[in-house]
Amino acid sequence: MEPQMLNRKRFICDNQDEEPQSKTKKCLLDTDVTQRDKCGDPSSPQDCCADHLDKSVALAQLISVWSDTERTGKRVLLQLQSRETTENTLLNDSVNQRFLEFHRDITEECGAEDKQHSWAVIEKKEEIVMYGPYYPKYNEGKHSEDVIIRQTEELLESNGAAQARTVYVFTMNSPCLSRNSEPPCMLKLVQKAKEWWLRFRVKTNIGYNKCWGFKGTKETMFRAVNFSQVEALRNSENYEEYTAQNMTGGNPVCENVYTLLRNLLNGEPFIFRLSLQGIEWKSYFKGMQTIPEAARVTEKLRHEISRMTEEAQSLSTETCLRAEEHVGRGQTFARDFSFDSQITQDATDDLRLAFQKCWEEMVRDKYAETLRDKLTDDFNQCANRLFIDDFVKVTSSFLRVGRIQCAGEKQQVT
Prior knowledge:
- The protein is α/β, with parallel strands linked by helices.
- The chain has helices spanning 45-67, 69-82, 93-110, 144-156, 185-200, 227-234, 239-245, 255-265, 278-283, 299-312, 323-336, 345-395; strands at residues 7-10, 118-124, 127-134, 164-173, 203-210, 399-403.
- It contains twelve helices and six strands.
- α2 packs across α12 and α11 (323-336) packs antiparallel against α12 (345-395).
């Protein structure tokens, strides 16, 4: 039997940049579910309603807990520190496949996009309604999920809502778990998914490509991690010894971050790529202008400095290496570089030393930056896993949240 072909249509919103009209609406999360006509098809309706009520109370408690980002952030740190494994965040195969199909359609129509955006699909009996993509307006305090929630609500409240079965919400980065002026997007979507289930009997699937955690790349938990702190950690046996080294004016990391960093450095050799370009690259070699000969900089000397740094840039695009290997390559380059014969021996010696100093500073900064990025990525993934683990217990009947596994990605157990 041939599968049924569903009609597809695009929903174009003419006023997507406008604020939705204000509507007075009672929050269904606060409504006694025994007042509803349907509680499903239980053998004992009273038991079913009691179960729904218990889960509604548990959901409200979880939302309250996860609204306290300081508390949950510490919990995520402890989870990472313990190195206990938690369930992965991938969606199951059938839901994942639907997201991939919708993503292909959106990409064919609107083009591929790497930056943050969101789109959604309402799947009905005989029709699929697709809308988006929408982009955040951070200068106005608007996230892309805000528009998705508003548009989904309007479409479900329209005349065709009775045939709706499932809502698929895609967002490039997972919905945020922390937000300055209002509830974070993840909590808002969970609440809306519950509301849409109670009002329309519609299930919701939320899929994303990257784990954003609380603040994504703007996470400040690990900002104190720099090269000097890493060196102090390597020269210590425990946190007390580490903090003693920082009493001369350093800015030590907290004990939880210390443990995470030690675990990371005690694992597989930490390798990284020097991927710097343009102004950022050139900024590291300004120090070469301070050599003694630079007091009477000539055009020839200026040209040699420029030529040396430009040729060295090819070293930054090669394979990942350990920090000491990057430093060694810079030293070898400086030693073997051939200067113009018109440059004095004293000047070339000074330039080689100045280059090595600038190169080592760049490697140290990039090393610390890569460590911070790795810690942040692990932290964000752990935050998402813990969130999903907490909420799946009380939302599995109407909501799935998880990362989308792209075609060709190594298969993982879901």
